[in-house]
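Intended use. Records like the one below are meant for learning the mapping from a protein sequence to its folded structure. Do not use them to infer anything beyond what is encoded.
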Amino acid sequence: MGGEREIPKCFLTLVASGNWQRSKYIGVSLVGKTLVVIGFGKVGSEVSRRAKGLGMHVIAHDPYAPVDRAHAVGVELVSFEEAISSADFISLHMPLTLATLKMFNDETFSKMKRGVRIVNVARGAVIDEEALVRALDSGIVAQAALDVFTEEPPPQDSKLVQHENVNVTPHLGASTTEAQEGVAIEVAEAVVGALKGELAATAVNAPVVPAEVLSELAPYIALAEKLGRLAVQLVAGGSGVTSVKVTYASTRRPDDVATRLLRAMVTKGLMEPISSVFINLVNADFIAKQRGMKIAEELIMLDGSPENPLEFIQVQIANVESKFGTAMSEYGEIKVEGRVKDGKSHLTKVGSFGVDVSLEGSLILCRQIDQPGIIGKVGSILGDENVNVSFMTVGRIAPRKQAVMTIGVDEEPSKDALKRIGEIPAVEEFVFLKL
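Structure written out for the chain above:
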Protein backbone atom coordinates (compact mmCIF):
# COMPACT_ATOMS: atom_id res chain seq x y z
CA MET A 1 0.00 0.00 0.00
CA GLY A 2 1.24 3.55 -0.71
CA GLY A 3 3.52 4.66 2.12
CA GLU A 4 2.98 1.52 4.18
CA ARG A 5 5.65 -0.75 2.64
CA GLU A 6 8.76 -1.57 4.64
CA ILE A 7 11.69 0.72 3.85
CA PRO A 8 14.79 -1.28 4.87
CA LYS A 9 17.11 1.66 4.34
CA CYS A 10 15.32 3.93 6.78
CA PHE A 11 17.97 5.92 8.64
CA LEU A 12 16.23 5.51 11.99
CA THR A 13 16.00 1.73 11.66
CA LEU A 14 19.64 1.46 10.63
CA VAL A 15 20.99 3.51 13.51
CA ALA A 16 18.73 1.79 16.03
CA SER A 17 20.08 -1.57 14.88
CA GLY A 18 23.67 -0.44 15.41
CA ASN A 19 24.57 0.48 11.81
CA TRP A 20 26.49 3.70 11.20
CA GLN A 21 26.89 3.91 7.42
CA ARG A 22 27.42 7.64 6.89
CA SER A 23 29.33 7.29 3.64
CA LYS A 24 26.50 5.33 2.04
CA TYR A 25 23.97 8.14 2.34
CA ILE A 26 25.05 11.31 0.56
CA GLY A 27 22.33 13.92 0.20
CA VAL A 28 21.87 16.98 -2.00
CA SER A 29 22.13 20.51 -0.62
CA LEU A 30 19.17 22.80 -1.22
CA VAL A 31 21.24 25.99 -0.97
CA GLY A 32 21.60 27.63 -4.36
CA LYS A 33 19.34 25.13 -6.11
CA THR A 34 16.39 26.21 -8.25
CA LEU A 35 12.98 25.21 -6.95
CA VAL A 36 10.08 25.42 -9.37
CA VAL A 37 6.64 25.73 -7.76
CA ILE A 38 3.84 24.73 -10.13
CA GLY A 39 0.65 26.32 -8.82
CA PHE A 40 1.15 29.56 -6.90
CA GLY A 41 -1.95 29.51 -4.74
CA LYS A 42 -2.08 29.58 -0.96
CA VAL A 43 0.02 26.44 -0.46
CA GLY A 44 2.41 27.10 -3.33
CA SER A 45 3.20 30.60 -2.12
CA GLU A 46 3.87 29.36 1.43
CA VAL A 47 6.19 26.63 0.12
CA SER A 48 8.02 29.34 -1.81
CA ARG A 49 8.51 31.46 1.32
CA ARG A 50 9.98 28.55 3.23
CA ALA A 51 12.21 27.44 0.37
CA LYS A 52 13.69 30.93 0.07
CA GLY A 53 14.49 30.72 3.77
CA LEU A 54 16.54 27.61 2.97
CA GLY A 55 18.60 29.55 0.46
CA MET A 56 16.90 28.27 -2.68
CA HIS A 57 16.26 30.24 -5.86
CA VAL A 58 12.49 29.99 -6.39
CA ILE A 59 10.53 30.50 -9.58
CA ALA A 60 6.89 29.59 -10.19
CA HIS A 61 4.42 28.85 -12.93
CA ASP A 62 0.74 29.65 -12.56
CA PRO A 63 -1.11 31.22 -15.51
CA TYR A 64 -3.64 32.84 -13.18
CA ALA A 65 -1.54 34.03 -10.21
CA PRO A 66 -1.20 37.80 -9.71
CA VAL A 67 2.30 38.98 -10.58
CA ASP A 68 2.37 41.44 -7.67
CA ARG A 69 1.71 38.67 -5.13
CA ALA A 70 4.58 36.63 -6.53
CA HIS A 71 6.89 39.66 -6.42
CA ALA A 72 5.90 40.27 -2.80
CA VAL A 73 7.26 36.83 -1.96
CA GLY A 74 10.36 37.43 -4.09
CA VAL A 75 9.34 34.88 -6.72
CA GLU A 76 9.34 35.29 -10.49
CA LEU A 77 6.45 33.89 -12.52
CA VAL A 78 7.66 32.21 -15.71
CA SER A 79 6.27 30.07 -18.53
CA PHE A 80 5.82 26.34 -18.03
CA GLU A 81 8.60 25.52 -20.50
CA GLU A 82 11.07 27.87 -18.82
CA ALA A 83 10.12 26.53 -15.41
CA ILE A 84 10.65 22.83 -16.09
CA SER A 85 13.86 23.37 -18.05
CA SER A 86 15.39 25.39 -15.17
CA ALA A 87 14.39 23.22 -12.23
CA ASP A 88 16.59 21.28 -9.85
CA PHE A 89 13.52 20.59 -7.73
CA ILE A 90 9.85 20.73 -8.73
CA SER A 91 7.02 21.00 -6.19
CA LEU A 92 3.46 20.50 -7.48
CA HIS A 93 0.51 22.40 -6.00
CA MET A 94 -1.97 22.83 -8.85
CA PRO A 95 -5.54 21.51 -9.14
CA LEU A 96 -6.49 18.56 -11.32
CA THR A 97 -8.27 19.94 -14.37
CA LEU A 98 -8.47 18.99 -18.03
CA ALA A 99 -5.50 21.29 -18.59
CA THR A 100 -3.34 19.72 -15.86
CA LEU A 101 -4.30 16.06 -16.37
CA LYS A 102 -1.01 14.19 -17.04
CA MET A 103 0.73 17.52 -17.50
CA PHE A 104 3.93 15.72 -16.55
CA ASN A 105 4.44 13.13 -19.28
CA ASP A 106 7.17 11.76 -21.53
CA GLU A 107 7.37 15.00 -23.50
CA THR A 108 7.53 17.11 -20.35
CA PHE A 109 10.22 14.97 -18.71
CA SER A 110 12.35 15.10 -21.87
CA LYS A 111 12.66 18.88 -21.46
CA MET A 112 13.96 18.71 -17.87
CA LYS A 113 17.52 18.85 -16.63
CA ARG A 114 18.97 15.44 -15.89
CA GLY A 115 18.78 14.66 -12.17
CA VAL A 116 15.71 16.75 -11.33
CA ARG A 117 13.77 15.87 -8.18
CA ILE A 118 9.96 16.03 -8.01
CA VAL A 119 7.58 16.37 -5.07
CA ASN A 120 3.87 15.82 -5.73
CA VAL A 121 1.45 16.81 -2.98
CA ALA A 122 -1.22 18.06 -5.39
CA ARG A 123 -3.18 15.37 -7.26
CA GLY A 124 -1.84 12.05 -8.48
CA ALA A 125 -3.19 12.31 -12.01
CA VAL A 126 -1.26 15.47 -12.86
CA ILE A 127 1.63 13.04 -13.46
CA ASP A 128 1.58 10.25 -16.02
CA GLU A 129 2.84 7.61 -13.60
CA GLU A 130 4.15 5.25 -16.27
CA ALA A 131 6.09 8.14 -17.83
CA LEU A 132 7.53 8.98 -14.40
CA VAL A 133 8.80 5.41 -14.01
CA ARG A 134 10.54 5.71 -17.39
CA ALA A 135 12.04 9.07 -16.39
CA LEU A 136 13.32 7.55 -13.13
CA ASP A 137 14.82 4.54 -14.92
CA SER A 138 16.60 6.78 -17.43
CA GLY A 139 17.96 9.10 -14.75
CA ILE A 140 16.15 12.22 -15.96
CA VAL A 141 14.34 12.23 -12.63
CA ALA A 142 16.76 11.41 -9.81
CA GLN A 143 14.14 11.05 -7.11
CA ALA A 144 10.41 11.51 -6.60
CA ALA A 145 8.49 12.06 -3.37
CA LEU A 146 4.78 11.30 -3.76
CA ASP A 147 1.92 11.81 -1.33
CA VAL A 148 -0.82 11.36 -3.95
CA PHE A 149 -1.53 8.81 -6.67
CA THR A 150 -3.85 8.34 -9.63
CA GLU A 151 -5.36 5.34 -7.86
CA GLU A 152 -5.48 5.48 -4.06
CA PRO A 153 -4.29 3.32 -2.50
CA PRO A 154 -1.99 2.32 -5.37
CA PRO A 155 -1.65 -1.37 -6.27
CA GLN A 156 0.81 -3.26 -4.11
CA ASP A 157 2.80 -4.27 -7.19
CA SER A 158 3.01 -0.68 -8.48
CA LYS A 159 6.37 -0.17 -10.23
CA LEU A 160 6.28 3.45 -9.12
CA VAL A 161 5.70 2.74 -5.45
CA GLN A 162 8.33 -0.02 -5.46
CA HIS A 163 10.96 2.06 -7.29
CA GLU A 164 14.14 2.47 -5.26
CA ASN A 165 14.29 6.21 -6.03
CA VAL A 166 10.74 6.97 -4.94
CA ASN A 167 9.58 7.89 -1.43
CA VAL A 168 5.86 7.56 -0.81
CA THR A 169 3.36 8.54 1.88
CA PRO A 170 -0.36 7.60 2.01
CA HIS A 171 -1.94 10.99 1.18
CA LEU A 172 -1.33 12.46 4.62
CA GLY A 173 -0.25 15.99 3.71
CA ALA A 174 -2.81 17.47 6.12
CA SER A 175 -2.55 14.76 8.77
CA THR A 176 -1.23 16.83 11.65
CA THR A 177 -2.77 17.55 15.03
CA GLU A 178 -2.80 21.26 14.23
CA ALA A 179 -4.49 20.76 10.84
CA GLN A 180 -7.24 18.60 12.32
CA GLU A 181 -7.84 21.14 15.07
CA GLY A 182 -7.95 23.87 12.43
CA VAL A 183 -10.65 22.05 10.49
CA ALA A 184 -12.72 21.60 13.66
CA ILE A 185 -12.41 25.31 14.48
CA GLU A 186 -13.31 26.29 10.93
CA VAL A 187 -16.45 24.13 11.02
CA ALA A 188 -17.47 25.61 14.37
CA GLU A 189 -16.93 29.18 13.15
CA ALA A 190 -18.92 28.44 9.99
CA VAL A 191 -21.85 27.12 12.02
CA VAL A 192 -21.79 30.16 14.32
CA GLY A 193 -21.65 32.47 11.30
CA ALA A 194 -24.55 30.71 9.61
CA LEU A 195 -26.66 30.99 12.78
CA LYS A 196 -25.95 34.73 12.78
CA GLY A 197 -27.13 34.94 9.18
CA GLU A 198 -23.66 35.34 7.70
CA LEU A 199 -22.43 33.54 4.59
CA ALA A 200 -20.12 30.64 5.39
CA ALA A 201 -17.24 30.24 2.93
CA THR A 202 -17.44 26.45 3.06
CA ALA A 203 -21.23 26.12 2.90
CA VAL A 204 -22.67 24.04 0.09
CA ASN A 205 -26.07 25.72 0.04
CA ALA A 206 -26.73 28.40 -2.57
CA PRO A 207 -27.97 31.94 -1.75
CA VAL A 208 -31.68 31.93 -0.93
CA VAL A 209 -33.67 32.99 -3.99
CA PRO A 210 -37.44 32.71 -4.34
CA ALA A 211 -38.44 29.77 -6.52
CA GLU A 212 -40.20 31.93 -9.09
CA VAL A 213 -37.14 34.19 -9.46
CA LEU A 214 -34.81 31.20 -9.70
CA SER A 215 -36.93 29.67 -12.44
CA GLU A 216 -36.81 32.86 -14.50
CA LEU A 217 -33.08 33.33 -13.92
CA ALA A 218 -32.11 29.72 -14.71
CA PRO A 219 -30.91 30.30 -18.32
CA TYR A 220 -29.05 33.48 -17.27
CA ILE A 221 -27.35 31.56 -14.46
CA ALA A 222 -26.00 29.11 -17.04
CA LEU A 223 -24.93 32.00 -19.29
CA ALA A 224 -23.10 33.76 -16.46
CA GLU A 225 -21.03 30.69 -15.57
CA LYS A 226 -20.13 29.96 -19.18
CA LEU A 227 -19.04 33.54 -19.85
CA GLY A 228 -16.77 33.43 -16.79
CA ARG A 229 -15.30 30.09 -17.88
CA LEU A 230 -14.79 31.37 -21.43
CA ALA A 231 -13.17 34.64 -20.36
CA VAL A 232 -10.58 33.09 -18.02
CA GLN A 233 -9.47 30.63 -20.72
CA LEU A 234 -8.59 33.59 -22.94
CA VAL A 235 -6.05 34.85 -20.40
CA ALA A 236 -2.46 34.23 -21.50
CA GLY A 237 -0.07 32.56 -19.07
CA GLY A 238 1.94 34.83 -16.80
CA SER A 239 -0.72 37.52 -16.44
CA GLY A 240 -2.65 37.00 -13.21
CA VAL A 241 -6.38 37.77 -13.03
CA THR A 242 -6.92 40.55 -10.50
CA SER A 243 -9.56 42.84 -11.98
CA VAL A 244 -12.90 41.65 -13.36
CA LYS A 245 -15.97 43.66 -14.27
CA VAL A 246 -19.40 42.14 -14.85
CA THR A 247 -21.98 44.27 -16.65
CA TYR A 248 -25.68 43.46 -16.78
CA ALA A 249 -28.08 45.20 -19.16
CA SER A 250 -31.77 45.19 -18.27
CA THR A 251 -35.01 47.00 -18.91
CA ARG A 252 -36.18 46.33 -15.35
CA ARG A 253 -35.71 48.38 -12.23
CA PRO A 254 -32.48 47.69 -10.28
CA ASP A 255 -34.46 46.22 -7.38
CA ASP A 256 -36.00 43.67 -9.75
CA VAL A 257 -32.67 42.34 -11.06
CA ALA A 258 -31.22 39.65 -8.77
CA THR A 259 -27.55 39.93 -9.69
CA ARG A 260 -26.13 38.32 -6.53
CA LEU A 261 -26.62 34.82 -7.89
CA LEU A 262 -25.35 35.81 -11.34
CA ARG A 263 -22.19 37.35 -9.91
CA ALA A 264 -21.53 34.16 -7.96
CA MET A 265 -21.92 32.10 -11.15
CA VAL A 266 -19.58 34.34 -13.14
CA THR A 267 -17.05 33.99 -10.33
CA LYS A 268 -17.59 30.23 -10.23
CA GLY A 269 -16.87 30.06 -13.96
CA LEU A 270 -13.74 32.17 -13.53
CA MET A 271 -12.40 30.18 -10.59
CA GLU A 272 -13.17 26.53 -11.33
CA PRO A 273 -10.61 26.08 -14.13
CA ILE A 274 -7.83 27.49 -11.94
CA SER A 275 -8.69 26.35 -8.41
CA SER A 276 -8.29 23.06 -6.54
CA VAL A 277 -11.06 24.09 -4.14
CA PHE A 278 -14.66 23.05 -4.80
CA ILE A 279 -16.39 26.25 -5.91
CA ASN A 280 -20.04 26.76 -5.05
CA LEU A 281 -22.46 29.67 -5.15
CA VAL A 282 -21.62 30.69 -1.60
CA ASN A 283 -17.84 30.48 -1.41
CA ALA A 284 -17.09 31.79 -4.92
CA ASP A 285 -16.48 35.39 -3.80
CA PHE A 286 -14.48 34.25 -0.79
CA ILE A 287 -12.15 32.09 -2.88
CA ALA A 288 -11.77 34.87 -5.47
CA LYS A 289 -10.69 37.31 -2.75
CA GLN A 290 -8.16 34.78 -1.47
CA ARG A 291 -6.56 34.79 -4.91
CA GLY A 292 -6.49 38.58 -5.03
CA MET A 293 -9.32 38.87 -7.57
CA LYS A 294 -11.56 41.95 -7.39
CA ILE A 295 -14.93 41.75 -9.12
CA ALA A 296 -16.92 44.90 -9.87
CA GLU A 297 -20.49 45.04 -11.15
CA GLU A 298 -22.45 47.51 -13.26
CA LEU A 299 -26.12 47.53 -14.19
CA ILE A 300 -27.06 49.34 -17.41
CA MET A 301 -30.68 50.39 -17.63
CA LEU A 302 -32.24 50.07 -21.08
CA ASP A 303 -35.51 51.35 -22.47
CA GLY A 304 -38.11 48.83 -23.53
CA SER A 305 -40.52 46.23 -22.25
CA PRO A 306 -39.25 44.38 -19.13
CA GLU A 307 -40.23 41.01 -20.53
CA ASN A 308 -36.85 39.40 -19.82
CA PRO A 309 -34.79 39.94 -16.65
CA LEU A 310 -31.65 40.71 -18.67
CA GLU A 311 -30.78 41.68 -22.22
CA PHE A 312 -27.13 40.68 -22.01
CA ILE A 313 -24.24 39.92 -19.62
CA GLN A 314 -20.73 41.14 -20.30
CA VAL A 315 -17.52 39.98 -18.60
CA GLN A 316 -14.31 42.01 -18.82
CA ILE A 317 -10.87 41.08 -17.44
CA ALA A 318 -8.44 44.00 -17.15
CA ASN A 319 -4.64 44.17 -16.91
CA VAL A 320 -3.98 40.85 -18.62
CA GLU A 321 -2.65 39.56 -21.92
CA SER A 322 -4.83 37.39 -24.12
CA LYS A 323 -4.22 34.13 -25.96
CA PHE A 324 -6.55 35.53 -28.62
CA GLY A 325 -5.81 39.18 -29.34
CA THR A 326 -9.17 39.67 -31.03
CA ALA A 327 -10.84 39.24 -27.62
CA MET A 328 -9.27 42.51 -26.43
CA SER A 329 -11.55 45.53 -26.39
CA GLU A 330 -10.54 48.97 -27.58
CA TYR A 331 -9.60 49.71 -23.97
CA GLY A 332 -7.22 46.77 -23.67
CA GLU A 333 -9.44 44.36 -21.73
CA ILE A 334 -10.55 40.85 -22.54
CA LYS A 335 -14.26 41.22 -23.25
CA VAL A 336 -16.94 38.63 -23.93
CA GLU A 337 -20.67 39.21 -24.07
CA GLY A 338 -23.62 36.85 -24.17
CA ARG A 339 -27.40 36.65 -24.34
CA VAL A 340 -30.09 34.07 -23.73
CA LYS A 341 -31.89 33.05 -26.92
CA ASP A 342 -34.70 30.52 -26.88
CA GLY A 343 -33.64 29.56 -23.37
CA LYS A 344 -30.02 28.80 -24.33
CA SER A 345 -26.72 30.60 -23.78
CA HIS A 346 -25.28 32.40 -26.79
CA LEU A 347 -21.95 34.19 -27.21
CA THR A 348 -22.72 37.45 -29.01
CA LYS A 349 -19.49 39.45 -28.80
CA VAL A 350 -15.76 38.72 -28.58
CA GLY A 351 -13.76 41.90 -28.14
CA SER A 352 -15.28 44.29 -30.64
CA PHE A 353 -16.47 41.55 -33.03
CA GLY A 354 -20.11 40.56 -33.07
CA VAL A 355 -20.74 36.80 -33.23
CA ASP A 356 -23.73 34.56 -32.59
CA VAL A 357 -22.94 31.06 -31.37
CA SER A 358 -24.47 28.65 -28.91
CA LEU A 359 -22.27 28.08 -25.86
CA GLU A 360 -22.37 24.31 -25.97
CA GLY A 361 -19.51 21.82 -26.16
CA SER A 362 -16.18 23.35 -27.17
CA LEU A 363 -15.25 26.23 -29.43
CA ILE A 364 -12.53 27.18 -31.88
CA LEU A 365 -12.19 30.92 -32.46
CA CYS A 366 -10.31 32.01 -35.59
CA ARG A 367 -9.48 35.48 -36.80
CA GLN A 368 -8.75 35.50 -40.50
CA ILE A 369 -8.77 37.61 -43.62
CA ASP A 370 -12.30 37.47 -45.00
CA GLN A 371 -11.93 35.59 -48.25
CA PRO A 372 -13.57 32.61 -49.99
CA GLY A 373 -12.55 29.07 -49.08
CA ILE A 374 -11.49 29.49 -45.45
CA ILE A 375 -14.53 27.71 -44.01
CA GLY A 376 -13.95 24.80 -46.37
CA LYS A 377 -10.26 24.49 -45.48
CA VAL A 378 -10.91 24.49 -41.73
CA GLY A 379 -13.81 22.08 -42.12
CA SER A 380 -11.67 19.75 -44.21
CA ILE A 381 -8.94 19.64 -41.54
CA LEU A 382 -11.47 18.81 -38.83
CA GLY A 383 -13.12 16.23 -41.08
CA ASP A 384 -9.80 14.50 -41.66
CA GLU A 385 -9.49 14.21 -37.86
CA ASN A 386 -13.05 12.85 -37.54
CA VAL A 387 -13.95 15.88 -35.40
CA ASN A 388 -17.66 16.63 -35.70
CA VAL A 389 -18.60 20.29 -36.28
CA SER A 390 -21.86 21.26 -34.60
CA PHE A 391 -22.00 24.80 -36.03
CA MET A 392 -19.87 27.41 -37.74
CA THR A 393 -20.52 31.15 -37.97
CA VAL A 394 -18.54 34.15 -39.20
CA GLY A 395 -18.67 37.72 -37.95
CA ARG A 396 -16.80 40.39 -39.91
CA ILE A 397 -16.05 44.08 -39.94
CA ALA A 398 -16.70 44.43 -43.67
CA PRO A 399 -16.43 42.20 -46.77
CA ARG A 400 -12.82 41.21 -47.59
CA LYS A 401 -11.57 42.65 -44.31
CA GLN A 402 -10.98 40.84 -41.02
CA ALA A 403 -13.47 38.26 -39.78
CA VAL A 404 -13.91 36.04 -36.74
CA MET A 405 -15.01 32.47 -37.37
CA THR A 406 -16.54 30.55 -34.46
CA ILE A 407 -16.66 26.78 -34.76
CA GLY A 408 -18.47 24.46 -32.36
CA VAL A 409 -16.91 21.00 -32.09
CA ASP A 410 -18.02 17.85 -30.30
CA GLU A 411 -14.49 16.53 -29.73
CA GLU A 412 -11.16 18.15 -28.93
CA PRO A 413 -9.02 18.33 -32.10
CA SER A 414 -5.50 16.94 -31.94
CA LYS A 415 -2.52 19.28 -31.60
CA ASP A 416 -1.64 18.50 -35.19
CA ALA A 417 -5.10 19.50 -36.42
CA LEU A 418 -4.96 22.79 -34.51
CA LYS A 419 -1.48 23.42 -35.87
CA ARG A 420 -2.72 22.86 -39.42
CA ILE A 421 -5.55 25.34 -38.87
CA GLY A 422 -3.03 27.91 -37.66
CA GLU A 423 -0.90 27.33 -40.78
CA ILE A 424 -3.69 28.33 -43.18
CA PRO A 425 -2.27 31.55 -44.72
CA ALA A 426 -5.40 33.65 -44.14
CA VAL A 427 -5.74 32.62 -40.47
CA GLU A 428 -4.09 35.27 -38.27
CA GLU A 429 -4.77 33.69 -34.87
CA PHE A 430 -6.92 31.03 -33.26
CA VAL A 431 -7.71 29.52 -29.86
CA PHE A 432 -9.43 26.35 -28.64
CA LEU A 433 -11.78 26.73 -25.64
CA LYS A 434 -13.53 24.11 -23.52
CA LEU A 435 -16.91 24.87 -22.00
